[in-house]
Amino acid sequence: MRLDKFLCDLQYGTRSGIRKDIKNGLVSVNGTVTRKNDLQIDENRDEIKYCGKRCIYRKYVYYMLHKPAGTVSATEDRREKTVVSLLKDAGRNDLFPVGRLDKDTEGLLLMTNDGPLAHELLAPGKHVEKVYECTLAASITEEQRQTLAQGVDIGEKRLTLPAKVSVLEEKKIALAITEGKYHQVKRMVKAVGNEVLYLKRIRMGALFLDAKLKPGEYRELTEEEITMLRTHTRTVPTLDDVDAVIFDLDGSLVDSMWVWQTIDIEYLNRFGIKPPPDLHHLIGGRSFHETAVYFKELFQIPDEPEQIKADWNRMAWDKYSREVPLKKGAGAFITFCRENRLKLGIATSNSRELVENVIAAHGLNGSFDCIMTSREITKGKPAPDIYLAAADALGVVPERCLVFEDIIPGIQAGKAAGMKVCAVFDDASVSQDAEKRELADYYIHDFQELL
After folding, report:
1. pTM of the model
2. Crossing angle of helices 408-416/385-394, nearest 10°?
3. Which of 33, 115, 274, 284 is the most exposed place for a label (fewest CB within 10 A)?
């Protein structure tokens, strides 16, 4: 990733402030001072030092908090003490609670800055199980237990989903639910004629509250706990019914969307034009040629589309050769697919020259049985044309193809072609993540999840 983005992710300052520090010689890479903001580094291998201090890259962090009673599950509150205030010593200002616990409820609360994982844990359709230890006003009866296990009326349009009830001791139960409605546990118990006197969450998904943590204490999750959370909450594709894997290129197979955002700005600046803030959304999915035509018409560019495309290719060529990395785990996943005799294809709105350039740069020549670009089709994404053409070239029926896409028009194209689609996380489309998850069959943050 870019050096300035690396330091921004670690919250050493604003992008502009970090760029000034880099130019002032305050940053070194592998022992050598650099003044290049856009230097491409390997965040997992290179040694980066900022003001002499080594920087350990962690884009996402995860903390288990034993929430005490009397705190509110919020990032800020003018009147009440928040759970975020309990983690000041963590050194992060981007943490938020995953879900809410009532002010008087204690127990497990996951604190993180990983929005995609938080969505997976909280999305209603995922039915992630939460378990609560409940102290009741009276011992639970068998009739009450069975009613809770069937679902109860708490004043909503529908009954609650069935709950699991385990009797721990007299007047104490463990109640497992897969929803997150307002005051749900208390309302469910009240609906069967009992009352919750004390409530403590002890599990969320695969994550159990650490018994060593006292109320108000927290610790980082272990790698094993993080893996279990992701494995148990994310739906990742299997290759059991797949004969071919087809990759979109930019943002899906390679981390290159930042290149085009930079090129758009630089190119339009030539004509004294400031790009609109929603430009990325406006051109998403369009073929290379369609985008050139769109630019010419929208911004009244005097050059013809062929000249516009040639200029873009020249501007992108060096970056694709030197600075565009594969998505994390993509190389190993391609090898895995080849070893399992799956056919591989690329279906992209980019130009063939840049596709072949970046493939060669990563030593992947000969890895793909088909490369389909915008030149071979008449309609760009979200039309299914490019994916249908790729399937035909691979000799595989669409329903036996698995597509990897990072933007909504691409996901729509794959689905319209009758293929299974896995959405891929990308920084450039993070604002679309919720819709991407709804449209796609699967979702991954990186390809390592498939290995």
Report:
1. 0.48
2. 50
3. 274
| CB burial readout 61-71, b (16+ within 10 A) else e | bbbbbbbbbeb
Peptide bond into 382 cis (omega under 30): yes
Tens-place pLDDT, residues 29-81? 999 999 999 999 988 789 999 998 888 777 789 999 999 999 999 999 999 99
Q: Which of 102, 210, 311, 427 is catalytic?
A: 102
> Looking up tokens 């794959």, which residue turns up?
414
What's the burial of 96, exposed, middle or buried (CB within 10 Å: 0-12/13-18/19+)? middle
> Coil, helix or strand for 419?
coil
Long-range CB contacts (within 8 A, 24+) of 261-265: 261/428, 263/312, 263/315, 263/316
Task: Compute the Cα dihedral for 381, 382, 385, 391 and give only its sign.
Answer: positive
Place of tokens 């003018």: 78
Q: What are the pLDDT digits (tens) for 232-267?
A: 554 568 787 899 999 999 999 999 888 887 888 888
Half-sphere exposure of 366 (CA within 13 A, CB side): 1
